[in-house]
Amino acid sequence: MDATSRSGLVRAMECAGSHMRGRGACAGPATLRCGSCGAVRYCSRTHQKAHWGEHARVCARMADQMQRAPQLYDFPFSFAPHSTRSLEAGETTLCCLLQSWGVHGEGVWVASCDCQPPASPDTVGWNLPASSCPCTAPDFSAAAGQLQSWEEYYNWRGIPFHSPVALVLHWPLSLYHALWLSPILTLNLKPREALCIHYLGPERELDQLAVFAELLALLPSLEIHIEFVGPAVPEARDGECLVFSTFARCADVQCTCKKRDSVSKGSVTTRLWRGLYHDRYLELGRVPPDLIFGANAGIAAFPSWHPSIELIESLDVPALFTDYCEEAAVLAVQTIQNGVHGNHPSLAFPVQVNPFRQPLSPRDKVLDLPTFSNAFIFGFYGASSVT
């Protein structure tokens, strides 16, 4: 359950010792922090002492992760510092922020909060003026080399830093960053060449597919095919295919993005598959893909990942994943490296900060660790490719 409910109230952070058996109910809100790491909270000294045997194994590691907070909270956006502090303190909600920008429940923003119904597949508008969103092709066909930060991206696209578009563009930009970390974009892909991506475990992305059209600007002239596979795909949308050859449109009636001839030289094709990756893999058409990518994967938290990881380990394909905080990424790596059926893949892409993480803390933080959607990225090659 998200920290911000439909009523707009913010849930108090959970006591880390609340699950300990035989310790009784929590004495009150979790306001007592661990004095060593500062990453976990407790309702009382009793629960803190009961939990110490478990927490002691990770306390020093979490303390190191907390030291990276200044880097994680560093964004070029004018709205990020105040908005994040207000969200974390419960002084505002994401709904209120979206309303202040005039985008609440509109276009590509409809899935950004829980009070809105799912978007229709043809919902493609930014509901922002052209000057504040990427609704047309950039002045030149591609960025000069790899874009490595939000600042570089916003400057390249000519978007002011008060624009909130990064709140949804973190999906395609994180995928773009994963493509650069893998060897794929160093292979001098030719115009019209097809690039196939298996995107695992999508959730909110399913109602914001139009933002993936930004790959038309980032990777111009390519035919990009993204197979979205996950149990969150609604049964009614299983097999749905959408082709994007234009960008999400702005709110300006006279903008050139409304012209029929504003079509990219490439295209982004998305197709949805309901179910787990290992169950649907052979149905996906072109296998193996060029890249496997999972956003906010939660590999350590969900045992259903294990057979999919076993499958991925058997493929000669780069697989990259993101998670909300560094601890979740570290635990995911441990799960991967423990191996399945004796395989121990090489961690070709160690845990690192994703420069294109979402710039606001999520509503469902359970730790005081720096936490953002797509915050950290890591990955491996299948065992067959390890030399």
Task: Describe the 3D structure.
This protein has an 8-stranded mixed beta sheet, with helices on both faces. A two-stranded antiparallel ribbon has the order 1-2. Helix content is 24%, strand content 13%. Helix 10 (305-313) links the parallel strand 7 and strand 8. With 387 residues, the protein is α/β, with parallel strands linked by helices. The chain is built from 11 helices and 10 strands. Mean pLDDT is 87; it is low at 1-11. The chain is globular, with a radius of gyration of 21 Å. The chain folds into 2 domains: 1-67, no CATH class; 69-385, no CATH class.
List keywords for this structure.
single chain; 2 domains; eight-stranded mixed beta sheet; 387 residues; alpha/beta; 13% strand; two-stranded antiparallel sheet
What is the strand and helix layout of this fold?
Elements lengths: L31 E2 L7 E2 L2 H11 L3 H8 L2 H4 L7 H9 L5 H7 L49 H8 L8 H16 L12 E7 L14 H4 L4 E8 L10 E4 L22 E8 L2 H4 L10 E4 L10 H9 L4 E6 L2 H13 L10 E5 L22 E6 L6
Parallel strand pairs: 3-4, 3-7, 4-6, 7-8
Antiparallel strand pairs: 1-2, 5-6, 8-10, 9-10
**Mean pLDDT across residues:** 87
The global form is globular
Strand content: 5-15%
Count of distinct structural domains = 2
Q: Helix segment count?
A: 11
- Using only CA atoms, what is the Rg? 21 Å
Distance between the termini: 43 Å
Largest sheet: 8 strands, mixed
List the strand order in the largest sheet. Answer: 5-6-4-3-7-8-10-9
**Would you report the number of β strands?**
10
Low-confidence stretches: 1-11
Estimate percent helicity: 10-25%
Secondary-structure element sequence? EEHHHHHHHEHEEEHEHEHEE
Protein name: MYND-type domain-containing protein
InterPro entries: Mss51-like_C, Znf_MYND
GO molecular function: zinc ion binding
Organism: Ceratodon purpureus (Fire moss)
